[in-house]
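Bug: token stream looks shifted between consecutive jobs. Job 1:
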Amino acid sequence: MKGNPLGLIKHISVLMKNSELKDVVRPDMTRLLVVRHPFNRLISAFRDKLDQYKTANLEDDFYYKSYGWRAVDKHRKKALERFGPDFFSEDNNFGMPVPVDRQYKHSPKQPCFWEFVQEVLAGVRDEHWDPIASFCSVCDLEYNIIVHFEKLEFESQFVENLIDSNHVSKQGLMHFNPTLPLGMTQDELTKLYFQQLSAQDVEGLYKLYELDFRLFGYTFEYEEKIYPM
């Protein structure tokens, strides 16, 4: 099976408890983990899952039904107080910092990034934004390859020498995530979304993802404060 390596892994993987992994992983196996800057990953998850929808009706969208409507129901009143009544207008792109792709749709009924973050800080979890350290068994399994998403094109050249190219294509390994908005860097995109957050929000997010920051060597600067401190 060629193509998207994440799709390949989901296709062949089985659900296991962390304690069971050591019983099935042999020393000669290649144990690879792809990591990403925690805040960039959070924004990517939000943009892909909650600030646009691909179904005919918003109410049929899985992530809106699972998370979106509840975030709006709980936090829209405070969001209006915080950002003002025009924030969710069509002229302001319904509160989204970046317009959605033309092939997708957006509605003012969907949560803005600030509303989504309040849910994350309240404990709402999903595999797309959970801390990597919380579900990739980094304390139970000794990975012999850790690839940083930001350096994927470079590091994949090394990985390809260890992975059977008949199963994961080069293009799939290097380009399995949607691209950034045209003309923007990842740092610019992150700063744009984080303009909706308070210092308290950012501090709370850092505490949630602190282990990812420290384990995988990431940093973040916010209002002249550098994390980890």
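Job 2, same session, no restart:
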Amino acid sequence: MFLRQALPRAPDAGYDTNRSGAPSSCFEGTRVEILQSVMAWLERPVMDVSKPIYWVNGLAGIGKSTIARTVAEQVNSLALPMASFFFVRHNDALSNGKLFVTSIAFRLAEMFPGFMESVSNVLKADGTLPSKSLDTQFTKLFFQPLQSLALNQSLVLVVDALDECDPKDAQTILNNVVSHCARIPVLRILIMSRPENHITSVFNRANNVEKVVLHDIESDVVAQDIQHYLECQLKSIREQDEFLTIPPSWPSPVDLKALVDKAGRLFIWAATALKFIGDTHILNPEGQLQIILNRSVSSQRPYAELDELYHMVLSKGLSNPDCLLDFRLVLATVVLLRNPMSLQTLSKFLQIPNIRNLLVHIQSIIPLPQDPEGIVEIYHQLKFIILPSLTSSLIAVGVMMIGSEWMWQGVKGRCHSTAWSS
């Protein structure tokens, strides 16, 4: 296929990728109001161009990516044509805004023969288009080919984590869709991001955008969602074969409410806490729950509870103090790597043979693959806040110092002393 060679694109950018760390769907029965709102917007008459863009913004860890994936799944179930791009900061291809148009164009070409023909023709006339500016790519590889199609139903574009690409590229993408989407009346664009200044400034000037701020949703609504999520997931843990001695009354209403209060508005806190409680290598959900509940936080910072949760997981994660140096080097490397390594490659690179044993008790933060060739990385959702939040916890338990001379010399020493090829 000509376009496979002619169009560079980001692998695993779609909502349905099986990439490690990809966002999951919303837990059933949660986020009902925001999902209904987005779907009602999508179901407006095709030729209603008053609000073709829907921007959902919110704090890191609040659940934007799970909402984006759930909407994409619902759109797919309605058999509406759709393309999606889920940006990921710590991934060269998925954080590259310059691959956005070409990746979307390739997906649309797979769906529409007329679009494929138009794009193929312009690329045969000018094979350098993929290396030209995003403005030019939008015109030649997106808007003009779309205008040649006669669509009678909505065409949906789902863009997640736009703040995770270069700010200039993000602004160029936004300026194009805000300024020119009216040329394609059937186009509906859902954009999820944090409220970064370079994104907010574009949307503040636009009058064709529906806007929702997730952290402004009533706290009672969010608390009900998080309670439902925790209640169902803890019940699932309780009913596992390994935990048949846990009483049906666990957790108590008081403990459940305390968990909900600690989570605040952050689904990522709840998800991380559940992984810690249900850790099948420790096999003590009741004890793990009490460890969480017995930790107190004095700070009023937005992510104080999350900091404390990371601190707790890490402080409990090392069973052998003699391995502290290896433990902190592995953690520092995993946190700092832009593109994650496989378990086997990481072990070879750092000359540490027992990495799985080192990290086995902190899988609520860093899951371990079964296959040695599987990659080792922090859960994608945590990467939104990993450096300001997790790093402070790492420092607090004496695990690492980001940016320190020790860190640089440690990794540099491994690079110079290890003879291996990828």
